[in-house]
Write a structure and sequence with these properties.
With 417 residues, the protein is α/β, with parallel strands linked by helices. The chain folds into three domains: 147 residues, Cobalt-precorrin-4 Transmethylase, domain 1; 90 residues, Rossmann fold; 130 residues, 3-Layer(aba) Sandwich (Cobalt-precorrin-4 Transmethylase, domain 1), CATH 3.40.1010.20. It is 40% helix and 16% strand. The strands form four sheets. Strands 13-12-16-3-2-17 form a six-stranded mixed beta sheet, sandwiched between helices. Strands 1-7-6-4-5 form a five-stranded parallel beta sheet. The radius of gyration is 23 Å and the shape is globular.
Length: 417
């Protein structure tokens, strides 16, 4: 448990209440622990130097927007409050609360059991009993899992991000009005699975998940009549709703996206689909056939915009992107950077080896971790730094310290550029 003062202010909760979505009012109690675990004097130092600092011939530039977003910060705080509120109960976490190994590891150390993924809720939550506490992550959970958990009479603490809830609302409207939700996202990602399940809450509701431009092109080719339904059905068997029938279900579509995808790609896919529907059905019928809503979250967009600005300003020799390998928004940042200069996506400080090598995940669909040597050029060099929305400041700070150490420097050596 967190091990702070006894919970206070609990009178605001109804006796027997089993669903909590707004925390427990214990921010003051868990705040010191959160600050101790996730604050970074190194990050504060870089911010104080206007996000750019020099130590000898090494220059470090930190993106203006990086790291924890509001939704992630809120989810982590709620998890700590849950441990404080229920010090003697078993607490389960429905998968990783966010995609960051440091954060999830700290929660596990607090006695919160992180459940593995599973398609069958009955199997996944077999160990959860009446009175146990289950924390739902920032990504949300599929409708079937929520219904199963409600039937167990356990206590639910829902940390689903507001940006995700906004996507769900749009998908609900699509399904209600007879539109298939075409979701730009990774069909296996927790958020996309939860979002897709919302389409099935209406009779006849349907969804199709598209990962990238090539998959979007395959859908557009079918809409234009250039490929058969059987081929499309087979290609997307793993990424469409039960009983998906292309001819019927792609006659009216509404576009949405996983909130952490690359914004420019989401817009491009949206326009690809719009053009295909317009060509197939004509401009006069388009409004009755096609809908689209921008559901990229503002924090994701802010972090991507900050990286684009760094790249446009120039002067960088290498970019280090910090965040869990399974973090979609971190992957998007790495893709942006890799198109312009050498970029290394690392999980955390352990990726920077004192001997000079770096362990990283090259941008791509199925790339495994790689090790690169001589990644930090000798002589004067400028390193850009950013971090995904699920990366805490302490991890960013530790990475900075590792990079400085490669040049025999410390945080104390940093001066404004």
């Amino acid at each position: 448990m967190v091990g702070l003062s006894p919970p206070s202010g609990l009178c605001c909760f109804a006796v027997g209440q089993t669903y909590f979505q707004k925390g427990f009012g214990l921010k003051a109690a868990v705040g010191p622990v959160l600050a101790q675990n996730y604050h970074s004097r190194v990050v504060d130092r870089l911010r104080g130097l206007d996000h750019a600092a020099r130590a000898g011939d090494l220059v470090l530039k930190l993106a203006r927007e990086f790291g924890f977003c509001y939704g992630v910060d809120r989810a982590v705080e709620y998890a700590y409050e849950t441990r404080e509120r229920f010090p003697d109960r078993r607490i389960f976490l429905s998968g990783e609360i966010i995609h960051n190994p440091d954060v999830n590891g700290r929660l596990a150390e607090m006695g919160i059991r992180i459940l593995p993924e599973g398609a069958d809720p009955a199997v996944r939550y077999a160990d959860v009993g009446s009175g146990d506490v289950v924390i739902l992550p920032a990504f949300g959970v599929p409708v079937a899992e929520m219904e199963h958990l409600r039937g167990k009479a356990c206590v639910l603490v829902d940390t689903t991000c507001g940006s995700v809830l906004n996507v769900w609302k749009n998908v609900h409207m699509y399904a209600r009005d007879g539109f298939t939700a075409v979701i730009h996202g990774k069909h296996y990602h927790e958020e996309t699975k939860a979002t897709a399940s919302q389409a099935l809450t209406h009779e006849g509701g349907q969804y199709l998940c598209i990962r990238d431009r090539p998959e979007a092109q395959a859908v557009c080719d079918f809409i234009r009549g250039r490929s058969p339904a059987d081929a499309l059905r087979a290609r997307f068997a793993h990424a469409a709703g039960p009983g998906f029938e292309p001819t019927r279900d792609l006659a009216r579509i509404g576009v949405a996206n996983q909130t952490t995808m690359l914004m420019s790609e989401s817009f491009e896919i949206q326009e690809m689909l719009r053009a295909a529907m317009q060509e197939r059905y004509g401009e006069e019928d388009l409004q009755e056939r096609f809908r689209a809503m921008d559901t990229i979250c503002s924090a994701t967009q802010d972090r991507q915009d900050a990286v684009f600005k760094m790249l446009q300003e120039g002067g960088l020799d290498v970019m280090v992107v910090i965040g869990g390998y399974n973090s979609s928004n971190t992957q998007a940042l790495a893709r942006i950077c890799a198109e312009r200069l050498p970029a290394y996506h690392i999980k955390g400080p352990e990726g920077i080896d004192p001997g000079g090598s770096i362990r990283h995940r090259p941008p791509g669909v199925h790339h495994e971790e790689a090790t690169s040597t001589s990644w930090l050029p000798a002589g004067p060099v400028t390193v850009g730094l950013t971090a995904g929305a699920s990366t805490p400041n302490n991890v960013v700070g530790e990475v900075v310290e590792r990079i400085l150490a490669l040049r025999g420097r410390t945080v104390a050596d940093l001066v404004q550029v």
